[in-house]
Amino acid sequence: MSIITTIYVVTGVISIILAVWLSNMARLSGRSRIAAKEKSQDLNQEDAEASSAPIKEAVDPDLFNEITNALDSSGHPKEVSEKISGIFSKELEKRVSLNTQELNKKYEAIIEQKSYDQEVAWTKYKKVSSDKKKTEAVIRSIAEGLVVVDNSGKVIMINPAAEKLLGVSMKDKVGKPISDGVRQDQLISLSHESADKEDREIELVSEQDDTKKILRASSAVIENENGETVGMVSVLSDITKQKELDNLKANFVASVSHELRTPLVAIEKSVTLILSKAAGEVSETQERFLTIAARNLKRLTILVNDLLDLSKLEAGKMQVKCRLSPLNQVISDSVESFSNWAKTKSLSLEKKVPEGLPEINMDPDRIVQVLNNLIGNAIKFSSDNGKIVVEAVLCKEDQQVEVSVSDNGIGINKEDLPKIFDKFFQVGERVSTDINGTGIGLSIVKEIVELHGGMIWVESQKGVGAKFSFRLPLQGNT
Predict the structure, then answer these.
(1) Which helix (H) or strand (E) holds 188?
(2) Are residues 362 and 465 in the same domain?
(3) How many domains does the chain have?
(4) What's the pLDDT tens digit per position in 39-88?
């Protein structure tokens, strides 16, 4: 029996004994008064009920009646005592039974709740375990290498593909930094940024074939529900073959472009000599055809130069030779070189440059190349009798010069604007009489402007025209 049950039972027994004692005292007191007053009739029924009311309230009425009947019964005191003892025992068993039943119910309720909680916890555990196994199976089956590290840079997980790429074992790497155990002669670079600035390139010397291996790592931060950084996941791709192909392509483009440049220069010089009539008189018809040939030779030369520049940009070998140069003169030279082409399409080519524009620390040849691309595109995408404006404005507050080339031609679709500076991207419409380009001019323009520490953007509306603007710092990119 528990301590609580024992206390409860003892308290009940004490209350019963107290009630019996009070009852006996009341009876003895009543008998004394009756004997002294010779059965006086002053004791009325109300006094008797009032004296027994507290006793009836203190104990169960049935128990009180049983005790009263036992006391009133005639017989030997031992028999009376045994009767009262039996009544107590019966009452005690009754109360113990009731308390036991109550405690059993509470215990069963606790056991039932505990069993339910355990069942819920087990169900959740099985679900988490199943999800974990599925996730691990997916990670193991990913062809790309996957490495997960905590916020201190220690490896939490690494899949088989990453083990193979890095030449390490998961059991040796978990709980340790990824660079631990890699020899210095193997690790060439772990933080070499790629051209797009979003990924990193990891260069390793492979133990198997003793050659350089190049991996691309795309990383993402892992945050908890409070937005705190708890780790990072990196996806590794083997781009060794891709790099080799890119190098082969760049070398091929550079070689072919260089070989094309020599005959183009010879043809251009020959046509120019004939047009100058140094080799003899030419008819008006011959002059018109030779002029068209000279213009297209010039444009073809520009395309070849663009291919050479693209190969230099991809190889990271393009350089700008900055020096203080007058921007007004650069703009004038570029506008003048396109004036004849604009006239053949009846286009108005205007220049708006304020007087006193300061000199800029720039590479004038490269900025001419930028303007030539922008003005050439404006002519290419303008219909006859259109208007093209080349404008320069000094931004004193930013210590920059803003140059823009605007036209009222066919314009650019809104969905094409974000891709307009991508390599090999071309808008879907152009004037049918113009020669198709390669789609690399604007990407080269963007690279040149950014090499100068500037920025370029475009504003356009379909059917209204386009405005290309770029900014250059006065001091250049030093």
Answers:
(1) strand 187-193
(2) yes
(3) 4
(4) 444 434 444 444 444 444 445 666 666 666 666 665 566 666 676 677 77
